[in-house]
Amino acid sequence: MCGIAGVVALRDDAPPPERADLAAMVGALRHRGPDEFGLYRDRRAGLGHARLSIIDLATGQQPLCNEDGSLWIVFNGEIFNYVELRAELVGLGHRFRTRSDTEVVVHAYEAWGEDAFLRFNGQFAIALWNAPRETLVVARDRLGVRPLYLCEHGGRLWFASEVKAIFAGDPAIPRALDPVGLAETFTFWTVVPPQSVFRGVTELEPGHVRTISRGGTRDRAFWAPRYDDGSGASRSPGEAVERVRAALEDAVRLRMLRADVPVGSYLSGGLDSSLVAALGRRVKGGKFCTFSVRFEDAEYDETRYQRAVAARIESEHRDIVVRREDIAAALPAVVAHAERPVLRTAPAPLFLLSRLVREAGIKVVLTGEGADEIFAGYDLFREGKIRRFWGRQPASALRPRLLERLYPYLARSPVAQRSLAREFFGRGRERWNVPGFAHGPRWSGAAALQRLFSADVRAESQRVDVVERLLASAPAELSGWSFLAQDQYLEARTLLSGYLLSSQGDRMLMAHSVEGRFPFLDVNVVELANALPASLKLRGLDEKHVLKRAARGLVPDEVIARPKQPYRAPDALSFVGDRVLPGWVGDLMTERAIASAGIFEPGAVARLWQKCRASRAQFSNTDNMAVVGVLSTGLLHELLVRATPSRASPPEFRTVVDRVAVPDPG
Amino acid sequence: MNVQQRVRQFVVDNFYLSDASKLSDDTLLVTSGIVDSTGVLEIIAFVEAEFGIRVRDDETVPENLESIERIAAFVGRRREAERATSSSAGGRAEASTG
Predict the structure, then answer these.
(1) What pTM value is reported for the model?
(2) Among A189, A515, A585, A647, which residue's beta carbon has the most beta carbons within 10 A?
């Protein structure tokens, strides 16, 4: 795992890239790869690399090239099937100098061109520079585990794993938040690539490859998700369970063994990470480390299940207890790493957890991320199913009562909440067969918070209907898929890629130089799951049905039987109450600060803040999102827009390939 | 301030609207996304505390609570009913002592 950066001249008259600029970029990515730093430069392009050494510790340095030095690479990620691909490439006559997966990428691209990316089972962001042809190729893994951002400025293309490196490369690049990116965030909880939250910066879409040459720029999807392709339809449930279990075992084995350092596992106490940890433990004979977040607030805490699993698999278990004040204290660092607003504080405990992992001397962890998307674990899928069932008989009084099975609190609630919940969930039910229907309540609930935007931001953000744009960019086959598959696709495209794998995943892990590996996102697991009929994933209202059956005997029964508990942390509660709050909270919320940032309407924020500070009770979902959204957007503006990018700590490069003749000072 | 204005002020403050002039008294609060299902409970708590009314379960329907206008009308009807009840109850009391 690593950080990559680079710059390419887009005009003939542009001077060669400056070493100081490349050093500043790599310096800004130091947390992603503190072990070694490398640089390549010629008259047209520069590449930089910050390395977290995991595979081929001795000779895997980057930048790295092919046999004749014409094709150079910087690479962030892992190709888990690199051993098999290497053997194949050797058979084709390619010669290797190292044992690294990076070198496999170079030769695979030489041999197969863009089809190479389809052969990779892994998580990657790659930049390849063909020096004689002056062509840059950038590519990103199928689901967007590893990040890559691009920005054109001053006749150059800048790119990097994180936006802060682009800003550090050229501090003259204008920095501002993008109102459309904010509107996406305050709808989907994330931007949707290629949109980013910064003006002028784009994010390479997952599963895409972009080629930048003198002839122009070409961007295309090398992979697109497919669902319900018929290949899994005829399977008996028993056979499907067997196949899922076998595919997961393979996925975990690859992720455990393809590393030259120890691999541990996160353990939330839910089904997914418990299963991953249990399978990891079976691959690993000796010591196996697991890591958990506990909460001082009992409402969020899952200690009991974490300990049950750790005892069962006999792992060396470590945990941290997270308090509200820890979340408040961590949020600035969380936002600086996430580089986008968040509407939940849930990334903060994971920021603290990766520190614990690092302190335990572990660089790589497995996580259970992705299972809820590909095997249909979320309440949203069940809610969508009920609401569609209701939509077919919109006048039915009985059908909406199924919502009470989903949300048992409704059955116990005052009639007020029940009848208005019906109003809420029933909204637009005549459009039950339209893509995006299941997400409607969540998206419109978050989008309602755009009322906090300043008049300018609101006016500009309304130039794009972000929901319409998302649905229009979905594959043409979407409407032919089952409703569940449509919902899964939209969930993976938005929340999984942009929030869970990014704000809550890569960024929180890499903040402390820890690599996450995601067995549920293994290409074989994903394609197997996507081909299964909806009835095996969401059976009636039983979520992740096939996965629960596959987990039997591997994890404690109580973990399989327990009701799903969404991972959450105290949100607004972390920023109110009698405790002394960090100074930045009050500073950001002053009318002057809000007005000067120009993103939100000061009067509206004042009303929000007054309400929350006066409240001792539970906060509504809307209030929670509003407080965390306003604070995190304010922090983002302070830390990445207003602050001048730091170029203060350039790294010591170990690998330097400099093809620009330095003029003789004599 | 009359009832409708007080309700309006509450909605603007409690749901932190940035531009009160854009909110009309017949805006459907849940449908428009301003109020979520928890927000409805906040409206009920406000009505009970501010106007001294007990809102019965069977009254907590969108027809009574979905807009500023409807809330104000509901409060008006309930106050009217309570005045009628207390005056007729008072009347009976007088009659019985008489």
Answers:
(1) 0.94
(2) A515
